[in-house]
Amino acid sequence: MSKINIAIAGVGNCASALLQGVEMYKASPENHIGLINYNLGGYTPGDVNIVAAFDVDRRKVGKPLKEAVLAKPNCTFLFYDKLPDYPVKVHMGPVMDGVSEHMADYDRDKSFVVADQPPCDVVKVLKESRAEILINYLPVGSENAAKFYAEACLEANVGFINAMPVFIASDEAWARKFREKNVPLIGDDVKSQVGATIVHRTLTKLFENRGVILDRTYQLNFGGNTDFLNMLNRSRLKSKKKSKTQAVQSELKTALEDNNIHIGPSDYIPWLNDNKICFIRMEGRGFGNVPLTLDIKLSVEDAPNSGGVMIDAIRCMKLALDRGIGGVLNSISAFTMKSPPVQYTDTEAKKMVEEFIDGRRER
Question: Is 134 helix (H, G, I), strand (E, B) or coil?
Answer without folding.
Answer: strand
